[in-house]
Write a structure and sequence with these properties.
By secondary structure, this protein is of the alpha/beta class. It has helices at 2-55, 72-75, 95-103, 145-148, 153-161, 175-183, 213-221, 239-244; strands spanning 61-68, 78-84, 110-114, 139-142, 186-188, 192-196, 201-205, 228-232, 249-252, 261-262, 266-267, 281-285, 288-292, 311-318.
Length: 319
């Protein structure tokens, strides 16, 4: 009887040893697997970063949108407008300029640049390569925050957390930029307008950082009442002022479309008053239609794009 119990105890000890060895082996396998799991995550993260930093920012595309305004079926006037924004020109440039030469060789009635044309003065050397073929009614531009501010890495990092340091204390001199643009037949509208009487069209340019509501209304009231009014601006904020001025369609940028979009969620940030769903494309405020460009560039220190490639847009407008 005693021997039988001893045998049972032996079998039990042996079974416990097997279980212990099995568990220990599984733990050792888990420990051995972790480096591969972490390595896989690291390689995936590196691959995504390289794609977002080196590949997608160069995947330039040209999109086309058809828009009808002001009872278009009655008048039937048409405009073909190329909307460009956020070039952030600086040395060196190549792919962006090649893309611009390609798309601007086509026929347009108007070409619009809606701010952040330059990142710094080194970008001025590329002005004569922005347009291959002048449009029928001309090229018009407004300036943005990167045209006016010489940002440092401090502003782009600490400034994101502490708003007081988001921008440099002073504007830089934009006269060299404006003069270079206008020598290249790109007219810069700084809180001013231009009108085309045969076409029944007026264009208002809103300079960065903005214009008072009263001043904007005064400019809009100086436009003949039968004119279609288009406006250019850079940063999407106080869009209600543009709507209240009676502008029919306005063109802006700044958001870069969010730069990083998550499928099913949208842009992570818009850096403006726009909702994530409004980070780019057509946006309406009552009777005023806005087109927000994804832009063609960004500050080189933060030019990362994911599910949001750079784009220029052709607006085929009937009014």
């Amino acid at each position: 009887m005693f021997k039988h119990r001893a045998d049972d105890a032996g079998h039990l000890d042996h079974s416990l040893d097997l279980v212990k060895n099995l568990v220990q082996g599984q733990d050792e396998k888990r420990i051995a697997t972790w480096p591969f799991v972490l390595g896989g995550f690291a390689l995936t993260a590196l691959g995504v970063f390289l794609y977002a930093n080196k590949v997608e920012p160069r995947r330039f595309s040209l999109e086309t949108i058809e828009v009808s305004l002001r009872g278009a079926s009655a008048s039937g006037k048409k405009l073909r407008i190329l909307h460009l924004s956020d070039l952030h020109l600086c040395e060196p440039e190549s792919h962006k300029l090649d893309f611009l030469q390609q798309i601007t060789s086509e026929e347009y009635d108007l070409i619009f640049f809606t701010g952040d044309i330059f990142e710094n003065y080194s970008g001025i050397q590329y002005v004569n390569r922005l347009i291959a073929r002048l449009p029928r009614l001309g090229t018009y531009a407004v300036l943005g925050n990167h045209d006016y501010y010489d940002y440092t890495l401090f502003h782009k990092t600490i400034g994101k957390l502490w708003r007081r340091h988001r921008h440099p204390a002073k504007f830089r001199d934009v006269v060299p930029m404006v003069e270079a643009l206008e020598k290249a037949d790109i007219q810069v509208l700084r809180n001013a307008k231009t009108s085309f009487f045969p076409q029944g069209l007026s264009i208002i340019g809103i300079d960065y950082p903005g214009i008072s509501p009263g001043r904007l209304k005064d400019i809009a009231r100086s436009v003949p009442p039968e004119h279609l009014i288009l406006a250019l601006f850079h940063m999407p904020r106080r869009l209600g002022d543009i709507k209240d001025a009676g502008i029919h369609m306005a063109f802006g940028g700044h958001t870069h479309g969010g730069q990083i979009r998550i499928p099913g969620f949208g842009a992570l940030v818009t850096d403006s008053e726009l909702k994530r769903s409004e980070a780019s494309g057509l946006v309406r405020r009552d009777d005023t239609l806005f087109h927000i460009s994804r832009g063609l560039g960004a500050d080189p220190r933060s030019n990362i794009r994911l599910f949001c490639p750079p784009a220029a847009t052709v607006i085929e407008l009937t009014y």
